[in-house]
Write a structure and sequence with these properties.
homodimer, about 200 residues, alpha/beta, 5-stranded parallel beta sheet, about 20% strand
């Protein structure tokens, strides 16, 4: 089939267990690459430029933004983050499937500039799980937990804009679902136009 | 997720190996049921009514057709064949995924009356395989093989109207592709509206 990889955009509320599902996916499906983001924040211990992030100055970041080099970008607490088009396209061109884990706002931006991306929403099986997980892992105040829960519930509403919803009742099953989605997308007629043309015209 | 099964319409030219791929699929994925057709031809040895076919008289068949009881139907050499809506809907309602192996003409009829069906085209990897396979398995005249090959190549051109194309280079891989397609379709947001509504509204 066609060699170019798929861009898979993954979102989901905090507490949905995205990280765990994606870690299982990557370990079962070696053709998957994580996108590496560009950031203006300082590297933390053990973070390696080009592996964890591409570390840039604010000036470099703004120049990239101006040149349309981001699939999406945003600023949080005065630091900028963006998904570099060159890196994603390089991996896709080499035949890797690239996963981009971003919030729903960024995901919709990516869909806009890269309409062929596959949009996957990871959801908990129950609404109540979100609050439970945030509460279990957090050392934050009751007020902060409430704010985070509200924000997560707001993210849930964006699920309808996605192509697929993967319900994380079990992370292994969630990973299998994502791998099936990738496999199925590779079988889509729209992703195999060249093969079909060759077949009909006798090139193959 | 939602309990209702998927209707999977499978077509492909003679010589593509549809039967083998579907047999592997069914043995790996027990939730799959074959649709049983209605026919006016006489039962052959060991054929059981309700298992291989539903055997009907021409009058019964025409009455069913008039009542819109077929998802698609046609006549070949004076005998009639049809896909009974009641049988398909009963299996789907019980949560089974139903596979319907029909020609491209019938497939497009089904899509028309049942737009939620998933259309899968099984194709050989090479155009030349079609003639080779027809030649190998056939005891027919050169003229008949040529006619069958032409008709198979005509079927190939219909691939563009399908959702997915499964290339049968290896029947096991073809079966895995079909199972992935079913799995992915079950994750589609449009097939999980009720789950998402419940999640957002707090029903879950």
């Amino acid at each position: 089939m066609e060699k170019k990889g798929l861009l898979i955009v993954v979102s989901g509320p905090s507490g949905a267990g995205k990280g765990t599902v994606l870690a299982h996916t990557a370990s079962k499906y070696p053709n998957l690459k994580y996108s590496v983001s560009v950031t203006t924040r300082a590297p933390r211990d053990k973070e390696v430029d080009g592996v964890n992030y591409f570390f840039k100055t604010e000036e470099e970041f703004q120049a990239m933004k101006k040149d349309g080099e981001f699939l999406e970008c945003k600023s949080v607490y005065g630091k900028s983050y963006g998904t570099p088009r060159f890196y994603v396209e390089k991996q896709l061109g080499e035949g890797y499937d690239v996963v981009l884990e971003i919030d729903t706002e960024g995901a919709l931006e990516v869909k806009n500039v890269y309409p062929d991306c596959v949009m996957v929403f990871i959801s908990p099986a129950k609404r109540s799980t979100i609050e439970e997980r945030l509460r279990n892992r957090s050392t934050e105040s009751e007020e902060q937990i409430k704010l985070r829960t509200q924000s997560a519930l707001k993210e849930l509403k964006q699920a309808v804009f996605y192509d697929y919803i993967v319900v994380n009742e079990d992370a292994q099953q969630g990973a299998d679902d994502i791998i099936s989605i990738i496999q199925a997308e590779k079988c889509k007629v729209k992703n195999n136009k060249k093969f079909i043309d060759d077949l009909i015209l006798g090139g193959k």
